[in-house]
Write a structure and sequence with these properties.
Layout (H helix, E strand, L loop, with lengths): L1 E2 H12 L4 E4 L5 H10 L4 E3 L3 H15 L3 E5 L3 H16 L3 E7 L13 H5 L5 E4 L5 H13 L6 E6 L6 E2 L25 H5 L3 E5 L6 H14 L3 E3 L14 E4 L7 H4 L4 E5 L17 E4 L4 H7 L7 H14 L9 H11 L4 E4 L5 H7 L8 E3 L9 H12 L12 E6 H6 L3 H8 L3 E7 L4 H9 L14 H7 L3 E5 L2 H12 L5 E6 L5 H9 L1
């Protein structure tokens, strides 16, 4: 005999969950935490419920398996909403377990309708009991992993998870990755494919699985077709690939390449990834399912693109975000950090620094860059980096930086989740937090000025991030020059634990960068 909590944890392990993140309350999730310990599934205490959901999201994106988090009832559920909404719009499969009052109780203290509260940001919701536990877990995992992937919610009444049950035998859940024969050639190709002379691939988040990425790279090479990628699809076609043509955002920066094409082929492109503005490009657009990439390659003729055209386009895009500044420019922070940690996974927060980061940090594999694009929430980079770093966790090797994760965040974004620095320290996560410190919400400041509004409500004020980091056990550094930054990164990368670098950046170039990328 085992408890319902033991059954839940067993199913999570079978589904590929690597950690359970959260802030426990005094109810049923204490049984879940205890069951995690019995099954050697790590439970990671976070500073915020939203941080727990984002860390779970990051693990889901990297592994292609579900992530998991838990919260207490009432305020824990209201606090997790932003992280769950992020998972919904980033198409990330996570399971969210919430405490709930015991069935039949009538008190009002902390009582909210959890399922109604989370309904707009989850794919599915159910309450668990001793009789339906196996079925609820199976349905939850299947729903989270079905396309489009996303979060599901399981409400756990206080008297349920500790109950004994005899778990039924269940087969392992199906592998969400496609099998080797998932790309058979298919007939009936769109006639536009056969007629295209300068097709251009627009690659989105739905194309991040390894087999799809491999098929796309082969198509580009054999049919001489350039590919642009969204933020989420960075690495599907590596930045160093000769057919990589830069980013597509529905902004200005990709227009010179798109207008040369005679057919746009979207693979795995999700509308949530594009800037919310009219699509004004003139080449026809066709959608192709990721599973059909190989058959597309059979149908496409060799294009008339010149390989150097894609490379020139990328160089033009990169030049657009390299705007000189009087002091340390944001683009130089990205370039120096990327050169020092070429194999690190990078997480990127929302904010003005995101623009040079997404353009200049080279990625060579899917999910090498994690970013909140669909929700574009601030406070993403640090908890996502914690989730990523705990997957990569292993003994440090002198001179090897591959296990490190780098979080690029603005000072405003870090303020939202600063408590997660303590989480990183407690877990000894091997990550480096780079803070673009300009004492302002720079992206909002630019938009104020564009509308000729007074500068109000965007000044953060001076924060000594190095001291704050040191106070919670994260090794702190500060830099205001390129030389100081290079030295700080070198020191951080040999530290077997979390580090933070407070970088004083000059925001003067941000308006020009924003104009170059978005118009």
């Amino acid at each position: 005999m085992s408890s319902v909590a033991d059954l839940v944890v067993a199913r999570l392990r079978e589904a590929g969950v690597r950690c359970v993140f959260g802030m426990p309350g005094g109810g049923s999730n204490l049984d879940l935490v205890a069951a995690c310990a019995r099954a050697a599934l790590p439970f990671v205490l976070t500073a915020t419920e939203t941080g727990a959901a984002i860390a779970a999201l990051a693990q889901a994106e990297i592994t292609g398996r579900p992530g998991a988090c838990l919260t207490t009832q009432g305020p824990g559920v209201t606090s997790v909403v932003n992280g769950v909404a992020c998972a919904r719009l980033e198409r990330a499969p996570i399971l969210v377990f919430t405490d709930a009052p015991a069935a039949g109780t009538s008190f009002e203290h902390q009582r909210l309708e959890h399922r109604a509260l989370l309904a707009p940001v989850t794919k599915w919701s159910a309450a668990i009991d001793a009789r339906n536990a196996a079925d609820v877990l199976a349905s939850a995992i299947a729903c989270a992993m079905s396309e489009p992937r996303g979060p599901v919610h399981i409400d756990c009444p206080a008297d349920i998870l500790g109950c004994e049950c005899d778990p039924p035998e269940m087969p392992d859940p199906p592998d969400p990755h496609r099998s080797a024969d998932a790309f058979p050639p298919r007939g009936g190709a769109d006639p536009r494919v056969n007629q295209a002379r300068k097709p251009l691939l627009l690659v989105g988040l739905g194309a991040r699985e390894a087999q799809t990425a491999s098929a796309i790279r082969a198509l580009c090479a054999t049919r001489r077709v350039p590919a642009m990628v969204t933020y989420k699809a960075k690495g599907v076609v590596a930045d160093h690939d000769p057919w990589f043509a830069g980013l597509v955002t529905n902004g200005a920066i990709e227009r010179p390449v798109i207008e040369q094409a005679d057919l746009l082929i979207a693979v795995g492109l999700d509308a949530v990834e594009l800037l919310p503005r009219p699509w004004t490009y003139t080449p026809p657009l066709m959608q192709v399912e990721p599973a059909d990439v190989s058959s597309l390659a059979h149908a496409l003729p060799v294009s008339s693109w010149d390989a150097t055209a894609a490379q020139r386009a990328v160089e033009h895009q990169r030049a657009g975000v390299c705007v000189p500044a009087g002091a340390l420019a944001p683009h130089r922070v990205v370039q120096i950090a990327a050169a020092a940690a070429p194999h690190a996974r990078v997480t990127v927060d929302a904010g003005a620094h995101m623009l040079p980061a997404t353009m200049l940090w080279p990625i060579d594999a899917p999910n090498g860059m994690l970013i909140s694009n669909g929700l574009s929430t601030m406070g993403f980079a640090l908890p996502a980096a914690i989730g990523a770093a705990l997957i990569e966790r292993g003994p440090a090797q002198a001179g090897h930086h591959d296990c490190h994760t780098v979080a690029l965040t603005g000072d405003g974004g870090l303020l939202i989740c600063a408590g997660e620095l303590a989480t990183a320290a407690r877990e000894r996560a091997r990550l480096v937090v780079v803070v673009f410190n300009d004492a302002s919400l720079s992206l909002i400041d630019i938009k104020q000025r564009q509308r000729q509004l007074p500068r109000d409500g965007v000044g953060i004020g001076a924060i000594d991030w190095r001291s704050l980091a040191d106070s919670v056990g994260v090794r702190g550094h500060a830099a205001s020059t390129e030389e100081e930054l290079a030295a700080a990164i070198a020191a951080a990368l040999v530290h077997d634990g979390p580090s933070l670098i407070d970088v004083q950046v000059d925001p003067a170039g941000y308006p020009a960068i924003l104009k170059a990328m978005r118009g």
